[in-house]
């Protein structure tokens, strides 16, 4: 058994939407197809991966460093010691060979896309859904049959008024979501508070609404928004400031009583350790949101979970960011607090399998081998088109 080929491409997910920090008019993602000589159902097993939105495609790193290291390795060095499958940890160590620690950034994004493809292939070779494989290997056979999911939405775009924002949120509620998320920080405080009030008219309770500032605020701004939202008891107040400004988070946590959430722009387990040491977050109410498709992949996310638990955090306070099927498989198989969803944006990469509904804010897993990309018809067609499979 060996890896025959690894193909990468860049895909566009451009959109007119924006958050408080960036617009998505030129946004791209990396797509990876890992082709093996293992045959299932009369066809070679192919693992698919892609990076999450927000960090752009990283084809250069994949083509020039990561993929050649895997292709040049001996097949035996990439396989499990027992059984006949690929070993994601050995493959991760292979493509990360000769890479210095720290300075994660774009390298972590390239690794996330490649590592996703590896795990998809491993689960397909094993003949079971990825969430079940994770449960058996890393969670003592325990799993959740359904996971909390929430839609990432409420973006700013030209001409979008309160009525359109409310219509968007009604659509999410009609689709079965209970908790919804909206952007803040892309307008002034008074305007954003009117937007929040408009959404609360739809969802009815602050505990059904999360807000996301995408790291926009300095400490005075973060505190001002926190004070204005103090009585709403929101599901969470996400990324109030720069992800590496631990003092900002620690100070805000001393004054803002409801839940904070952050971590989607941290890219390693060591980043998380520093956040937990110095960020003042509270394990009884706050949320950690590292994105496995942007932070070295599922292989690193296993270390993220270990680091969180070593610092007294329950894995139920972790919600993998990204709105993709990898995050949902992690949530089900490793029993995190849930997963983000992108039912309306960043298509076709956002969202989950076709035909599996969201009911009262929860969705269930798929029953076919792998991560489930083949069950999302438009995503599977795009992956095949891009990689020539």
Describe this structure in words.
The protein has 389 residues and is an alpha/beta fold. The protein has two domains: 125 residues, Enolase-like, domain 1 (2-Layer Sandwich); 252 residues, Alpha-Beta Barrel (TIM Barrel). Helices cover 38% and strands 15% of the residues. The chain has twelve helices and eleven strands. It has a five-stranded parallel β-sheet with strand order 5-6-7-8-9. Helix 9 links the parallel strand 8 and strand 9. Helix 9 packs parallel to helix 10. It starts with a strand and ends with a helix.
Secondary structure layout:
Layout: E1 3-12, E2 28-40, E3 43-50, H1 59-72, H2 88-95, H3 105-126, H4 130-138, E4 146-151, H5 162-174, E5 180-183, H6 189-203, E6 209-212, H7 219-229, E7 236-238, H8 246-255, E8 260-262, H9 269-278, E9 287-288, H10 297-310, H11 325-334, E10 339-341, E11 362-364, H12 377-387
Parallel strand pairs: 4-10, 5-6, 6-7, 7-8, 8-9
Antiparallel strand pairs: 1-2, 2-3, 4-11
């Amino acid at each position: 058994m060996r890896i025959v080929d690894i193909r990468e491409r860049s895909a566009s997910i451009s959109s007119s939407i924006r958050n408080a920090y960036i617009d998505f008019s030129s946004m791209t993602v990396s797509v990876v197809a890992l082709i093996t000589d293992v045959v299932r159902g009369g066809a070679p097993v192919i693992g698919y991966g892609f990076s999450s939105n927000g960090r752009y495609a990283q084809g250069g790193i994949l083509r020039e460093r990561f993929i050649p290291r895997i292709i040049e390795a001996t097949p035996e060095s990439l396989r499990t010691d027992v059984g006949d499958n690929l070993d994601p940890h050995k493959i991760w160590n292979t493509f990360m060979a000769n890479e210095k620690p720290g300075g994660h950034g774009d390298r972590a994004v390239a690794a996330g896309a490649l590592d996703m493809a590896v795990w998809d292939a491993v689960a397909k070779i094993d003949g079971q859904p990825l969430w079940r494989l994770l449960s058996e290997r890393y969670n003592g056979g325990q799993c959740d049959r359904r996971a909390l999911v929430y839609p990432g939405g409420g973006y700013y775009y030209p001409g979008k008024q309160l009525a359109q924002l409310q219509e968007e949120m009604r659509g999410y509620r009609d689709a079965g979501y209970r908790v919804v998320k909206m952007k803040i920080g892309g307008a002034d405080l008074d305007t954003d508070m009117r937007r929040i009030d408009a959404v609360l008219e739809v969802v009815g309770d602050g505990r059904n609404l999360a807000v996301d500032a995408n790291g926009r605020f300095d400490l005075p701004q973060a505190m001002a928004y926190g004070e204005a939202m103090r009585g709403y008891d929101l599901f969470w107040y996400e990324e109030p400031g720069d992800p590496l400004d631990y003092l900002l988070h620690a100070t805000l946590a001393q004054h803002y009583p409801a839940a904070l959430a952050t971590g989607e722009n941290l890219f390693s387990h060591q980043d998380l350790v520093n956040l937990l040491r110095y960020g003042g977050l509270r394990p009884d109410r706050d949320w950690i949101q590292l994105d496995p498709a942007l932070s070295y992949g599922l292989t690193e996310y296993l270390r993220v979970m270990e680091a969180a638990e070593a610092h007294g955090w329950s894995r139920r306070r972790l919600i993998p960011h990204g709105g993709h099927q990898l995050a949902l498989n992690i949530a089900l198989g490793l029993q995190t607090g849930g997963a983000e969803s992108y039912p309306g944006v960043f298509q076709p990469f956002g969202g989950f399998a076709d035909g599996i509904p969201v009911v009262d804010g929860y969705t269930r897993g798929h029953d076919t081998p792998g991560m489930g990309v083949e069950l999302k018809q438009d995503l599977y067609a795009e992956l095949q088109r891009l990689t020539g499979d």
